[in-house]
């Protein structure tokens, strides 16, 4: 999905004009073993965004919905997402 987005943005010639990215992940990362690496994987993705879209100023990351938090892994993931701005002042958790 990301590759198709990047291809279209490049073809349109607006790659340097992207100012923000709205990141909304699904609940597929709510397996407890994946929550331990989520922070690092998000940082890697954030760095890729900054590389591919040099004009980016913000990444808005939406937390998973509380009603989907039916197990401990969901709450752990929400806490990690809540603290994403500590990775970079350019990211905002919503």
Any chance you could write out the topology, listing elements then pairs?
Elements: H1 2-12, E1 20-24, H2 32-52, E2 58-62, H3 72-82, E3 91-93
Helix pairs in contact: 2-3
Give the SSE order as H and E letters.
HEHEHE
Structural class estimated from helices and strands: alpha/beta
How many β-strand stretches? 3
Please give the share of residues in helix. 40-55%
Strand content: 5-15%
Uncertain spans: none
Output the strand order for the largest sheet.
1-2-3
- Shape field: elongated
Oligomer: single chain
In round numbers, the mean pLDDT is 82
Report the total helices.
3
Largest sheet: 3 strands, parallel
End-to-end CA span: 22 Å
How would you describe the overall organization of this protein?
The chain is of the alpha/beta class. Helices cover 46% and strands 14% of the residues. The chain has helices at 2-12, 32-52, 72-82, and strands at 20-24, 58-62, 91-93. The chain has a three-stranded parallel sheet with strand order 1-2-3, with no helix packed on it. Helix 3 (72-82) links the parallel strand 2 (58-62) and strand 3 (91-93). Helix 2 (32-52) packs parallel to helix 3 (72-82). It is elongated. The two termini are 22 Å apart. The mean pLDDT is 82.
Structure summarized in a few sentences:
This protein is of the alpha/beta class and 94 residues long. The chain has helices at 2-12, 32-52, 72-82, and strands at residues 20-24, 58-62, 91-93. The model has no long low-confidence stretch (mean pLDDT 82).
